[in-house]
Amino acid sequence: MPVIVVTDSSARLPATVADRYSIVQVPLHLSLPDGTEYLEGVDDIPPQVISEPDITTSGANPQDLIEVYQEAIERSEGDGVVAVHMSRRLSGTWAAARLVAEELGEKLRVVDSRAAGISVGLTALAAAQAADAGASRDDVYEAAIRAAATAESMLCVQTLENLRTSGRISAASRLLGSALAIKPILNIADGVLALQERQRTMTRAVNRMLDTLAEHVGDDEVTLAVQHCQALELAAEVHAGALERLPHVTSSLIVDLGPVLGVHVGPGAVGVTVGRGLEPLD
Q: pTM of the predicted model, to two decimals?
């Protein structure tokens, strides 16, 4: 049995892709002030929930993870598990995974993707494709590390208010992005969301994001993923614009950011991610 890859629901991999490569996605948590709790990817979460005041999110806890990891280890028939999770600086899931790894030992290796959203998904996918090809646990781990190091991801948001409230953006970025009528372009630097630049309209921000992506990608072959928060029409436009600018896209996806990440970025956000070295998707 190949090595099993486990990730969390922030990865946003479509079920068809996750099923094809037997990737397990552990749900993250979302809690309302009245005590209502949801598991992302398991419960039916109303779209308006992400705009509720005082809503909180949390990563997978050790108990969540140990059950999934143990089951995956058994399924692997001794080949082991590689777990790919959201940046340790954005979520507590990685830290919980490391605690479990101390208990389970060498059968489990944990990767900090240093990312969020579909960038986590593409890193998990790179690992799963290596596993599918028969790679060892250590080689699957290295495939994930390479994918995380070469992925590029940017995000345009309507406002920094959600990120400011949740503390998911640096203090310097909060100050730089505080002007009214500014549409920020964000990237992830050292595992933390940071302000890359500002534009006066969302149209300008999206075009600048795509132009910057094209500059970084050049002639490389890439897997393209567009992610959005309740902005499917805009995501489709971004997808089309990316395909026009990138000469060698082997596969592409459009995915929703989901409620847990949506709480932090707010409705209307849209982003692009590219992964290198992945096999084309069917």
A: 0.93
Return the higher-pLDDT residue of 196 and 270. Answer: 270
Query: Which CATH class name applies to 4-149?
Result: alpha beta
Residue 258: both structure tokens together:
């989901």
User: What fold, for 152-276?
Assistant: Hypothetical Protein Tm841; Chain: A;domain 3 (3.30.1180)
- Integer CA distances (angstroms), 106 to 138, 146, 221, in order: 10, 20, 34
pLDDT at 167 over 70: no
Cα–Cα distance, 134 to 76 (Å, whole number): 12
45 close to 38: Cβ distance less than 8 angstroms: yes
Report the pLDDT value the prediction gives residue 174, as an integer from 0 to 100.
46
Mean of the per-residue pLDDT values of the chain:
92
